[in-house]
């Protein structure tokens, strides 16, 4: 537990000096600590209680971690809101996840009868940026960076950087009509 506090203090520049005690109010810290309890109960095959803990923590923090997931040491979830970690996900040591990260499956319609591995495996020291989605039983190699809003559907070799496409300004126009606004926004 203290490792997670130390990592949060090291990785979040907002936690310096006296305000460092604020780390105890970080939703990512609460979510990881609660996950560790729920995961132990899940491994002992205690019914319902692990999922109940997971769902209560989800309501309080906006972070949903299935008790069946395996999360390594010193995982830091920055800001937290919107993070989802699926049941068969494996997260290595020293991983950093930003808000909005999804470590999910491709959906029940593609899983078929497969119950073993539906979620990604994240290597050690991987950073997953804001809003990135890593879907399916893919492997993200050690020391990789998955950039903000990237969509990963295939294995990523170790020491890789994955970037999503940047927004493009194709033209500057005058006043938009309601129809143009609808076209651009939907």
UniProtKB/TrEMBL annotation:
Keywords: Acyltransferase, Amino-acid biosynthesis, Cysteine biosynthesis, Membrane, Repeat, Transferase, Transmembrane, Transmembrane helix. It holds the Pfam family Hexapep. InterPro entries: Hexapep (IPR001451), Hexapep_transf_CS (IPR018357), LbH_SAT (IPR045304), Ser_AcTrfase_N_sf (IPR042122), Ser_O-AcTrfase (IPR005881), Serine_acetyltransferase (IPR053376), Trimer_LpxA-like_sf (IPR011004). Its EC number is 2.3.1.30. GO terms for molecular function: serine O-acetyltransferase activity. The keyword Signal does not apply. It is an enzyme of class 2 (transferase). Pathway: Amino-acid biosynthesis; L-cysteine biosynthesis; L-cysteine from L-serine: step 1/2. This is Serine acetyltransferase. It comes from Saccharothrix ecbatanensis.
